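Incident log, support desk, overnight shift.

02:14 A customer reports that sequence design results differ from what the structure should imply. Their input is reproduced verbatim below. On-call engineer (initials T.W.) acknowledged and began investigating.
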């Protein structure tokens, strides 16, 4: 099976306490490598400059689509304190260009304005299953390049699944957590995922399914959401079962956190994801809305 991923690669400087790590990343890398770990072929629609080690992705057999740019790669400075992080945008690469792909599913996860509304529309027209992480549509920067979230009336019709945290969902809709999930559903989304630190909820029709990730010591949270999204997407495409997809997504995020690794080193192994998914499957709670 094949997943098409639309997102920028990035070069991140991650600061945790007194330590700084320069890592390649971006949702393109986290989503693509997680999908490869789950035995999917990956077409990666991205952009990066000569400063990015593209061989790293090629060696993992990720198919790069029109990826090279004359501009340098998108860069972030990320400061992490526990589960919280702040971002500064250091550089922005070219927008992603669209071309047709025969993929089983499409995962759109921009990091900063690399996907235009027109490109999103083209992706929708070609996709049977479209997962959107809207973070990069919602991000803006101030005069000192600090990244913050801003309201955006993105067209969610034709979107199969979306993942948001409470801060992101407030830029798209309003209300309590439950009300925001329902409002996103009314915009056309079939599966609405709300992640609130260790609490993960999934709205399908009129039921909310939820799991709680074990609250252990958190190290580097960069890319955890992307790992989560790719695991959900791949499991939905393969198993056609949203409960398993929820548990695999939570299982992948937990396995990545358990690794205590930084950057792409935390991409979890398939076995660890499956073990966690089986554990979560027996603990899923559900309630009617």
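02:41 Re-run completed on a clean worker. Output:
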């Amino acid at each position: 099976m094949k997943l098409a991923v639309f997102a920028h690669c990035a070069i991140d400087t991650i600061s945790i306490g007194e330590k700084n790590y320069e890592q390649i990343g971006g949702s393109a890398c986290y989503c693509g490598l997680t999908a490869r770990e789950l035995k999917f072929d990956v077409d990666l629609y991205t952009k990066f400059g000569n400063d990015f080690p593209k061989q790293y992705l090629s060696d993992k057999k990720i198919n790069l689509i029109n990826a090279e740019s004359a501009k340098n790669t998108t860069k972030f400075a990320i400061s992490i304190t526990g589960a919280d992080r702040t971002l500064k945008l250091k550089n922005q690469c070219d927008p992603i260009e669209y071309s047709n792909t025969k993929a089983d599913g499409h995962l759109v996860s921009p990091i900063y304005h690399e996907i235009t509304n027109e490109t999103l529309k083209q992706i929708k027209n070609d996709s049977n299953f479209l997962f959107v992480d809207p973070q990069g549509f919602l991000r803006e920067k101030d005069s000192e390049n600090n990244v913050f979230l801003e309201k955006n009336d993105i067209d969610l019709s034709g979107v199969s699944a979306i993942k948001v945290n409470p801060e992101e969902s407030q830029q798209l809709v309003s209300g309590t957590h439950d009300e925001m999930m329902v409002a996103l559903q009314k915009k056309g989304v079939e599966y609405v995922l709300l992640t609130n630190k260790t609490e993960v909820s999934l709205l399908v029709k009129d039921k909310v399914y939820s799991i709680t990730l074990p609250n252990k010591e958190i190290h580097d949270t960069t890319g955890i959401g992307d790992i989560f999204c790719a695991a959900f997407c791949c499991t939905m495409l393969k198993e056609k079962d949203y409960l398993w997809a929820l548990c695999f997504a939570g299982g992948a995020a937990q396995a990545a956190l358990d690794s205590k690794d930084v950057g792409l080193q935390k991409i979890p192994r398939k076995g660890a994801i499956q073990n966690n998914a089986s554990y979560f499957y027996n603990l899923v709670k559900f309630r009617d809305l």
